[in-house]
Structure formats: C-alpha cells, structure tokens
C-alpha cells in the first residue's frame, strides 16, 4: 500500500521551506546525470546487440572500442540500475561432478 503526503507537510516535518523544494525541481539536470542517461542508452543498445549475453566487462570493451570514456565500475553501476544482466549458465545443461 502506498501513502502520499503533501509537499508542504513533508517540508514542515523536515524543517525545510517548501519553496526550496520547488526550486530544486526546476534545476537543470547535472552534467553527470546527462552523461549517465546517454551512456545507459548506449549500454542497452550494445547489450541487446550481444543477444543479452554480455556483462559489464565486455560492454566496457565495446564502449572503449567506440571511443567512449567510462570506467568498468560506472558501466556496472549503470547496468545494475537499468536491470541489465549478463547471461549466466545455459538452461538444460546440468553440471557434472566427477565421482571417483
């Protein structure tokens, strides 16, 4: 169940003036947020082109080949936030243990 509260009431509880909240809403998106948004789109495109198989390491290599500047940790974070995951294992194949 979701509960909604009025902005003025929340600001009162937090000891803030509600006009500050509305000023914060009008701020332009930061450079980092814009870069993250653009790179998330590129990551998603590369991930789909791989057949949803690639993880952050191979996506990082592909982005490096394209000349995109981003670290592995940033790509891993963006993939996690976008809920993009690499394929792990193959369905239908059981692991075989050596019984000696």
Automatic annotation (TrEMBL):
Residues 35-87 form the HTH-like domain. InterPro entries: HTH-like_dom, Transposase_IS3/IS150/IS904. It holds the Pfam family HTH_21. This is IS3 family transposase. It comes from Yersinia ruckeri.
